[in-house]
Amino acid sequence: MAVRKKKIQNIKLVDFPEEVDEQNGIKVYGETSWENQLAVLSQYLHNNVYIGDEDSKQEIIYAIREFLERKKSNKDEEITDEYVIKVAENPIAYNLFSDFFKVPFPNPKFGQHTFIDLFAGIGGIRLPFNEMGYRCVFSSEWDKYAQQTYLANFGEMPFGDITKEVTKKYIPKHFDLLLAGFPCQAFSIMGKMQGFADIRGTMFFEVATILERHQPEAVLLENVKQLTTHDQGRTFSTILRILGELGYHVKWQVLNALDFGLPQKRERVIIVGFRSQQRCDAFNFDFKKKTYNLKEILEDDKDIDPSLFASDMILQKRQKQTEGKTVFYPSIWHENKAGNVSVLDYACALRTGASYNYLLVNGQRRLSSRELLRLQGFPDNYKIAVSHGEIRRQTGNSVAVPMIREIARKIDYILNNI
Ligand SMILES: C[S@@+](CC[C@H](N)C(=O)[O-])C[C@H]1O[C@@H](n2cnc3c(N)ncnc32)[C@H](O)[C@@H]1O
């Protein structure tokens, strides 16, 4: 779908009900924090399709004013209404917003197809679609560190909590594809649920609601493999049935990152749906297996931060745990919850909450931030904008990018040819 370009026209500044949130010291416009204003501003700069009504116009202007206030070098300088309006009318003409565009993965200017990125994390699902020229028209992710990583790489601040209507209101009416690696914490209740109304309170409900309201042509969902077997498969059947009720013909498959050229055993279920039966029929999960090579993702030990090397105590423990085992280099040593160690030429799935020492390169050290990103297939120009601890969490939550890339290519072929 071609992107509609609208300019802000006939701007008048109005007075907003402005409050100060005493506790956080942030300005609030209605229910909107500065982070939300940054989302409004950055998503407007990249893509202004959601500007429809007077309210959203005013919100953008308000966000621009706030941005200019924060950017000014002289605190006594007055930001006049006339200046704010001029900038808002043609923001790109002003050299104020270059940081939103000088990023490794800017949104394509004239994407033929559009998508929204829900539960966006650090954009692992988005990345291959951007590469193919697809244009993101809305993103949502509420974790502030993931937002920082996303902003640094895509020049776009995701909106926050997707369960809130104040967030969902920014989703443009039309887009072609919904992407979501939705969180799976609500499994415990989902199995007993039958219909659409019953799944309220789960993150899948948010996905279903947005599909119902916007009816994009295609959907791509990603989740842990256990989703397919939870509660004897009932949870998964509920999800598939609801997608069917919403008008989607779907196919699904459990895929393993190891088969996509990454040295990581990470099994995930992928669900792909189309409104057209014919398109769904044409889709398949046949991929040519690629080989992986652990050596390719490892950095030289001499470039590794010394704090990542394990203590003598851990090293001695590992020596004992691997007695009699074949040890080779390079390898990743895994300690499971029972304290057993295996030595493999790939990593087990990166996990957010796992112990710091559960994966050790050659039994000696933890993986660096860059290695963690490479294990998920992120290119080396992907920016690291947060601490190592946050990168561990973010990569553990993210996806195998090459796996998504292969699926994205198939979806693209189908949207363009069937
Ligand atoms: C499984 S991760 C998806 C990661 C993503 N696919 C990536 O490539 O990084 C789920 C994400 O959903 C976010 N999340 C959970 N609940 C949310 C909510 N109510 N609104 C927005 N984001 C939410 C979490 O912070 C987490 O980053």
UniProtKB/TrEMBL annotation:
The keyword Methyltransferase is assigned to this record: yes
CDD domains listed in its UniProt record: Cyt_C5_DNA_methylase
Nucleus among keywords: no
Reaction(s) catalysed by this chain's protein: a 2'-deoxycytidine in DNA + S-adenosyl-L-methionine = a 5-methyl-2'-deoxycytidine in DNA + S-adenosyl-L-homocysteine + H(+)
An example molecular function term from Gene Ontology annotations: DNA (cytosine-5-)-methyltransferase activity
Active site: C184
A Pfam match: DNA_methylase
Biological process annotations from GO: DNA restriction-modification system; methylation
Coiled-coil zones: none
Keywords, comma-separated and alphabetical: Methyltransferase, Restriction system, S-adenosyl-L-methionine, Transferase
EC number: 2.1.1.37
Record-stated family: Belongs to the class I-like SAM-binding methyltransferase superfamily. C5-methyltransferase family.
Protein's UniProt name: Cytosine-specific methyltransferase
Organism: Bacteroides oleiciplenus YIT 12058
